[in-house]
């Protein structure tokens, strides 16, 4: 069912606002004109502005900014990431939903929700996830050791930051893996995994982007330190294209990850991050460390040189920059 | 409910086959004689051989070898491991059951099942789990980094091997973490975990012991390489005591893990293992390595020196000893 819908949307998009007859559509899909009409009805119900006339056929007036699987998958040329897309109108959190289906899902499956009712950030913190944002999780089943799982988070941070810079905004990665614009958070990444000691069963890379959601939906606390792409660019962003760009770039990064030494990826992270060289205070669940961020390790840990001259390796935590 | 049953079993065990009146039991538990009688009925239904006489009261004829929570918990003096015990008559696998409840469970919760219908070994292999064996999983929520999670498997291997040696059998650890007697497998350990990159949510340490189960229940393939404690000692083992000993020793090991350098634990592993010095062939999901096992790392990886003189670190896999 949804494969045919994806195909119809793909073809209508290719026609770029021109009409195509029901007969032609039917031939392209190998189905009857009546079936075409049924799929069109279903797509119209989903919110696609498809007009039909007996004379000239069907026309997609414009591509609506809804994150339905067929809208994302039509035009996405990935071989792994996003070959399956699962959409929810509302869900507790896309990471939770992904966990529930991960074992039975294909490698590269993407879970998207319009709204997260209990969106989660790193270290158990809540993540406000109203309509207008991009809340997605990617299920990956990499053949890597547990000790290297953190590298997938690094890939995701690079991916989002690069795509945002391509959009013309000055995005930077703040260790461990937030994406900031003008010192305000625009994206968070929550990577979770399930594993035996000897092999990873699956990794869930959750990506939350404040895109077209309203600043007003943030709590007062968040408002000081968060922003949205709409706010930063002055206009709503095309979320469908953004998701496609992210999935496409993530696939490229993942291919690089599987074929090239990790040091090249780390170099790109360093280039895109503004953390190294800064004075930081990091709060972990068990301690607090202050000092100068002097390096990042192959597994994404930060090396902090404290005032006493001793350097410490920190795996993660809440990182604050000292005002300089 | 089950707290009172645990208390009754504890008291009856302390009376060691002598009788105690319903009135005394009721006073000890702060409940009426009628309630005592109801609990006794319930325990009798569970299979406890409790005799009652109007004159002298209640008596536990002998402690039955059933792995019910109250039977395991009464007399177990742990502060963490086994403070909650959940029992199934049949379950898919205790690791699966533990995963389903882990988030809401207390640190140290133990899941036991009489039978596992889809028992799992390492790397997705099946584990035959009929009545008579010990199939349990321990839920732990350690404040350690993902990179150190493998150390908990090492603790479990040491625990089981020590307890078996105390029973008088010559148990050894075969890397990565099987326990063998006379070169045949008597225990397998399957450690799984759920984590964010920055913090572990929970670890499930699954321990499967061929105790009183029948050799005849093994497949022909398994029969060559597996044994049971009953087979090795010539008589059925007391599974309740064995589980108590394991939970108690595991708690001691876990305390040591949290307070002492890991090198001391590793030294004990080396002492209990027969792998170092042997020529091994290891099959991992992605490759095969042959050579001499020359060392174990702080995270339980094996260092193998190959014929070409190059040493490799292997995280896990199926390990075979070369016949020498």
UniProtKB/TrEMBL annotation, chains A, B:
Gene3D superfamilies: 2.30.30.100, Bira Bifunctional Protein, Domain 2 (3.30.930.10), Winged helix-like DNA-binding domain superfamily/Winged helix DNA-binding domain (1.10.10.10). Pfam families: BPL_C (PF02237), BPL_LplA_LipB (PF03099), HTH_11 (PF08279). CDD domains: BPL. One of its GO terms (molecular function) is biotin--[biotin carboxyl-carrier protein] ligase activity. Transmembrane segments: none annotated. Keywords: ATP-binding, Ligase, Nucleotide-binding. It comes from the Archaea. One of its GO terms (cellular component) is cytoplasm. HAMAP family: Bifunct_BirA. This is Biotin/acetyl-CoA-carboxylase ligase. It comes from Methanosalsum zhilinae (strain DSM 4017 / NBRC 107636 / OCM 62 / WeN5). The lineage of its organism: Archaea, Methanobacteriati, Methanobacteriota, Stenosarchaea group, Methanomicrobia.
